[in-house]
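Subject: mismatched residue count in predicted assembly?

I count 228 residues in my input, but I want to confirm that the predicted structure covers every chain. Input:
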Amino acid sequence: ETGVTQTPRHLVMGMTNKKSLKCEQHLGHNAMYWYKQSAKKPLELMFVYNFKEQTENNSVPSRFSPECPNSSHLFLHLHTLQPEDSALYLCASSQVPPGQGWYSPLHFGNGTRLTVT
Amino acid sequence: TQLLEQSPQFLSIQEGENLTVYCNSSSVFSSLQWYRQEPGEGPVLLVTVVTGGEVKKLKRLTFQFGDARKDSSLHITAAQPGDTGLYLCAAATSGTYKYIFGTGTRLKVLA
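Triage response: the counts match. Full output below for your records.
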């Protein structure tokens, strides 16, 4: 399998549930990202991992907890979510070379459509 | 806060027409990318521009990066129904890989 794979594709959960989103990339990349896509809002960067280390937490509420056990896998653990957290959650990966001035594109999965009831 | 404003927000045109989508910011970026997203899928990269004034062509799509590297445009010639989708610009400042995305332009091309 190639590219970036996200599971599940759809998830409906109650506000008291705990669930996890999974992302796997088969591209050999060293950076992985979680983005949130809501209606009428730009794609919002949530978390960035580079070589399994979290390098960015874009003021995301603690009810979202990321985990990156290795360069190929990324999880987003969800607990006590709110209805406004309903959105499409996109995982992406890229290759980050050392130094500045690089232009590596993002490779996205097809997302998990999350509905919080 | 860095923002990328795209215009227009929505565009519905007939097959064969030309169109231009704009991506504007007050910030300077080291690179800018354009993505297209179709329903039920993630965004897919179309092009990366890195030099001020750069023009890149991808079949019927022409991309331009502003001289000051603050804005970009995407021009589609003779649009086709297959061009339908959400067009997103994205940019990162020098030395970071924190991409911010524009507000998006939703294009519908009618046959």
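The interface with chain B takes residues 4, 31, 33, 35, 42-43, 45, 48, 50, 56, 90, 92, 94, 96, 100-111 of chain A (CB under 8 Å). Marking this ticket as 'not a bug'.
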